[in-house]
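Lab notebook, bench 4. We co-purified these components, and the gel suggests they stay together. Before we commit to crystallization screens, I want a quick structural picture of the whole thing.
Request: model the full complex, all chains together.
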Amino acid sequence: MHLKIITHEKVVFDEDVDEIYTRGTDGEFGILPNHVPIMSALDIGVTKVVQNGQSSYFTTMGGVFQFKDNEAVILTPTAEAGKDIDVARAKEALERAQARLAEKNAELDIKRSEAAVARALARLKATMSD
Ligand code: ATP
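Here is the predicted assembly.
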Protein backbone atom coordinates (compact mmCIF):
# COMPACT_ATOMS: atom_id res chain seq x y z
CA MET A 1 0.00 0.00 0.00
CA HIS A 2 1.04 3.60 -0.43
CA LEU A 3 1.15 6.54 2.00
CA LYS A 4 1.35 10.25 1.28
CA ILE A 5 1.75 12.79 4.09
CA ILE A 6 0.88 16.22 2.75
CA THR A 7 0.99 19.62 4.50
CA HIS A 8 0.17 23.15 3.38
CA GLU A 9 3.77 23.53 2.31
CA LYS A 10 4.99 20.22 0.94
CA VAL A 11 4.75 16.48 0.48
CA VAL A 12 6.58 15.18 3.56
CA PHE A 13 6.34 11.47 2.67
CA ASP A 14 5.31 9.62 -0.49
CA GLU A 15 6.31 5.95 -0.42
CA ASP A 16 5.10 2.37 -0.33
CA VAL A 17 4.65 1.07 3.22
CA ASP A 18 3.71 -2.18 4.99
CA GLU A 19 2.02 -0.81 8.12
CA ILE A 20 0.71 2.55 9.36
CA TYR A 21 -0.10 3.50 12.96
CA THR A 22 -1.57 6.91 13.66
CA ARG A 23 -3.56 8.84 16.20
CA GLY A 24 -7.18 9.64 15.42
CA THR A 25 -9.31 11.90 17.58
CA ASP A 26 -10.99 8.70 18.88
CA GLY A 27 -7.67 7.00 19.70
CA GLU A 28 -4.76 5.24 18.00
CA PHE A 29 -5.37 2.90 15.10
CA GLY A 30 -3.35 0.79 12.68
CA ILE A 31 -3.76 0.08 8.98
CA LEU A 32 -2.51 -3.00 7.13
CA PRO A 33 -2.83 -3.62 3.37
CA ASN A 34 -6.37 -4.28 2.12
CA HIS A 35 -8.00 -2.54 5.06
CA VAL A 36 -11.55 -1.41 4.34
CA PRO A 37 -11.94 2.25 3.33
CA ILE A 38 -11.69 4.57 6.31
CA MET A 39 -11.71 8.31 6.90
CA SER A 40 -10.76 9.72 10.28
CA ALA A 41 -9.95 13.07 11.88
CA LEU A 42 -6.42 13.05 13.31
CA ASP A 43 -5.18 14.29 16.65
CA ILE A 44 -1.81 15.92 17.29
CA GLY A 45 0.60 13.01 17.62
CA VAL A 46 3.06 10.64 16.03
CA THR A 47 2.45 8.50 12.95
CA LYS A 48 4.57 5.35 12.72
CA VAL A 49 5.32 3.79 9.35
CA VAL A 50 6.84 0.33 8.85
CA GLN A 51 8.72 -0.54 5.64
CA ASN A 52 10.51 -3.86 5.30
CA GLY A 53 10.58 -4.25 9.09
CA GLN A 54 12.05 -0.75 9.60
CA SER A 55 10.02 1.81 11.53
CA SER A 56 10.06 5.55 10.97
CA TYR A 57 8.17 8.26 12.77
CA PHE A 58 6.45 11.47 11.71
CA THR A 59 4.65 14.14 13.64
CA THR A 60 1.16 14.69 12.26
CA MET A 61 -0.53 17.72 13.77
CA GLY A 62 -4.23 17.04 13.29
CA GLY A 63 -5.93 16.93 9.91
CA VAL A 64 -7.45 13.96 8.13
CA PHE A 65 -6.52 10.35 7.38
CA GLN A 66 -8.07 8.67 4.36
CA PHE A 67 -7.55 5.09 3.18
CA LYS A 68 -9.08 3.47 0.10
CA ASP A 69 -7.82 0.91 -2.46
CA ASN A 70 -4.48 0.62 -0.64
CA GLU A 71 -3.84 4.37 -0.96
CA ALA A 72 -3.45 6.24 2.34
CA VAL A 73 -3.39 10.03 2.54
CA ILE A 74 -2.68 12.15 5.60
CA LEU A 75 -3.56 15.81 5.08
CA THR A 76 -2.21 17.73 8.06
CA PRO A 77 -1.30 21.37 8.79
CA THR A 78 2.30 20.49 9.70
CA ALA A 79 4.31 17.30 9.71
CA GLU A 80 7.97 16.48 10.20
CA ALA A 81 10.03 13.34 9.90
CA GLY A 82 11.61 12.44 13.25
CA LYS A 83 15.09 12.85 11.79
CA ASP A 84 14.33 16.48 10.72
CA ILE A 85 13.13 17.67 14.11
CA ASP A 86 15.15 20.23 16.03
CA VAL A 87 15.05 18.83 19.59
CA ALA A 88 16.27 22.02 21.30
CA ARG A 89 13.57 24.04 19.54
CA ALA A 90 10.87 21.56 20.59
CA LYS A 91 12.09 21.66 24.22
CA GLU A 92 12.03 25.47 24.20
CA ALA A 93 8.52 25.48 22.70
CA LEU A 94 7.41 23.02 25.39
CA GLU A 95 8.84 25.16 28.21
CA ARG A 96 7.28 28.33 26.79
CA ALA A 97 3.85 26.73 26.45
CA GLN A 98 4.00 25.11 29.90
CA ALA A 99 5.04 28.44 31.46
CA ARG A 100 2.08 30.16 29.76
CA LEU A 101 -0.28 27.52 31.15
CA ALA A 102 1.21 27.85 34.66
CA GLU A 103 0.54 31.61 34.67
CA LYS A 104 -3.20 30.91 34.89
CA ASN A 105 -3.80 34.22 33.16
CA ALA A 106 -7.49 34.72 32.41
CA GLU A 107 -6.60 36.32 29.09
CA LEU A 108 -4.68 33.23 28.07
CA ASP A 109 -5.93 31.09 25.28
CA ILE A 110 -5.63 27.76 27.12
CA LYS A 111 -6.56 25.63 24.13
CA ARG A 112 -3.80 27.25 22.06
CA SER A 113 -1.20 26.67 24.76
CA GLU A 114 -2.35 23.07 25.25
CA ALA A 115 -2.03 22.49 21.50
CA ALA A 116 1.50 23.96 21.59
CA VAL A 117 2.39 21.56 24.45
CA ALA A 118 0.95 18.63 22.47
CA ARG A 119 2.93 19.60 19.34
CA ALA A 120 6.19 19.87 21.28
CA LEU A 121 5.60 16.53 23.06
CA ALA A 122 4.79 14.85 19.72
CA ARG A 123 8.04 16.23 18.26
CA LEU A 124 10.09 14.96 21.18
CA LYS A 125 8.40 11.54 20.99
CA ALA A 126 9.04 11.31 17.22
CA THR A 127 12.76 12.04 17.68
CA MET A 128 13.14 9.62 20.57
CA SER A 129 11.50 6.84 18.60
CA ASP A 130 13.56 7.41 15.45
P1 ATP B 1 7.75 26.91 17.64
O1 ATP B 1 7.17 27.70 18.80
O2 ATP B 1 9.08 26.32 17.93
O3 ATP B 1 7.66 27.64 16.30
P2 ATP B 1 5.30 25.59 16.93
O4 ATP B 1 4.66 24.36 17.45
O5 ATP B 1 4.58 26.87 17.18
O6 ATP B 1 6.78 25.63 17.48
P3 ATP B 1 4.43 25.19 14.26
O7 ATP B 1 3.58 26.41 14.09
O8 ATP B 1 3.74 23.89 14.53
O9 ATP B 1 5.54 25.45 15.37
O10 ATP B 1 5.34 24.98 12.97
C1 ATP B 1 5.86 26.07 12.19
C2 ATP B 1 6.88 25.49 11.22
O11 ATP B 1 8.09 25.16 11.92
C3 ATP B 1 6.44 24.21 10.53
O12 ATP B 1 6.96 24.20 9.21
C4 ATP B 1 7.08 23.10 11.36
O13 ATP B 1 7.32 21.95 10.57
C5 ATP B 1 8.38 23.76 11.82
N1 ATP B 1 8.82 23.32 13.15
C6 ATP B 1 8.28 23.65 14.34
N2 ATP B 1 8.97 23.11 15.36
C7 ATP B 1 9.98 22.40 14.80
C8 ATP B 1 11.04 21.60 15.33
N3 ATP B 1 11.22 21.43 16.65
N4 ATP B 1 11.88 21.02 14.45
C9 ATP B 1 11.73 21.20 13.13
N5 ATP B 1 10.76 21.93 12.55
C10 ATP B 1 9.88 22.54 13.38
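The chain has two helices and eight strands. Worth comparing against the SEC data before the next meeting. The pocket of adenosine-5'-triphosphate is lined by residues 78, 80, 84-86, 89-90, 93, 116, 119, 123 (CB under 6 Å).
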